[in-house]
Amino acid sequence: MKRVLLIVSGGIAAYKALELVRLLTKAGYGVTSVLTQAGAQFVTPLSLQALTGNKVYTELFSLTDESEMGHIELSRSADLVVVAPASADILAKMAAGLAGDLASTLLLATDKRVLVAPAMNVRMWEHAATQANMALLQTRGVLVVPPDAGPMACGEFGPGRLAEPPVILAAIEAALGVGGPLTGKHAIVTSGPTHEPIDPVRYIANRSSGKQGHAIAAALAALGARVTLVSGPVEIGDPAGVQTVHVETAAQMLAAVEAALPADIAVCAAAVGDWRVADEAPHKMKKDGGVPPALHLMENPDILARLSAPGPQRPKLVVGFAAETERLEEYAAAKRARKGCDWIVANNVGGTGIMGGEENEVLLLSADGARAWPKAGKIEVAAKLAAKIGEFFA
Ligand code: CTP
């Protein structure tokens, strides 16, 4: 029997944790639950205990609990740790690595995958602090079931409502490798910039952070796919549960992608350098007071176009990205035709710090036409794209 450790933190959505427990036990999972102090304001330990059939843990320093089951043991005896609802507070504690109570201590001590289902007021969810915490947690491999948008208990409208329990159950099953829609599929994702050397100490690069591509890799893995992430040089960490290959140049990225074939899915989110320096200097170039050197550039191989080319190795679904500053749909449609990929995720990078930022505003272009998605965090965009890919293979 697979075991889930469910941490219920504070918030009006905590009552939905009871429904989640009911679904989990009905599906045959063993559930042990932990209530934070704030969570206990919304549901009682008794109701959780009745539904799980197990003791509910609430305090960090309880001698009886320590002799029964220490917190390290508690955090490791489960197959998956789930935080639902996850409040802004517990997400911030996780991001900062705090361990002042039982729930945060378990989250710091666990060696298992962690899945969070955030729920909070829309402004708290959209706050830069929460979004930065989410981005950081996801780069560490924390799986996310994004909140739903809709009217909230506080009277406001927007994203922040806890995802519905059946959706959380599906994400739990995918994380445990039980029947996710992409189970058995191999996905290759490219992410980040490339560095094209000028000489041993200088290079040409771009502002890509890798946040969107890494989030897509994690989101595909959460739906059960085996994921190979080919990443250019980025500041963020490798997502958990994903095989990450680190490269520097476009040529290395192409070689790593080709080595990872065959695949069912390819998502090219990397901002591959269009050109490399044709005559890379073997030694550091010195200024000698004369004319500054001119760089002779040559075009890099187009990884997306290679993957999209017909042939036995072509993945069934190839998704490209288009970064445009104007005439988004028109340019993206032309790019889709030119490269031969199935879908294009077009983003407008002309506006406010999309590149390198936490948010993305995209248009999904396929043979069926164009669909504009509302501006959302990169994690939400990734989850939505992964879900669409899941539907494609359904
Ligand atoms: N891409 C790639 N290999 C390259 C260049 C681009 O795989 N050598 C992929 C990117 O990962 C992305 C898409 O192609 O999925 C972007 O296409 P690109 O031609 O780079 O478009 P832009 O540079 O955004 O636009 P353009 O050159 O048309 O202005």
Tell me what the structure shows.
- The chain has 394 residues and is α/β, with parallel strands linked by helices.
- It has two domains: 3-175, Flavin prenyltransferase-like (Rossmann fold); 186-392, CoaB-like (Rossmann fold).
- Helix content is 34%, strand content 25%.
- The protein contains 14 helices and 22 strands.
- It has helices spanning 15-26, 45-52, 63-68, 71-76, 88-96, 102-109, 122-126, 128-139, 165-175, 211-222, 250-260, 303-308, 328-339, 378-392; strands at 3-8, 30-35, 56-57, 80-86, 113-118, 143-144, 148-151, 157-161, 186-191, 196-199, 202-204, 226-231, 243-246, 265-268, 275-277, 297-299, 317-324, 343-348, 359-360, 362-366, 369-372, 376-377.
- The strands form six sheets. Strands 13-12-9-14-17-18-20-21 form an eight-stranded mixed beta sheet, with helices on both faces. The chain has a six-stranded parallel beta sheet with strand order 3-2-1-4-5-6, sandwiched between helices.
- A hairpin with a 2-residue loop joins strand 20 and strand 21 (369-372).
- The radius of gyration is 23 Å and the shape is elongated.
- The chain starts with a strand and ends with a helix.
- The mean pLDDT is 91.
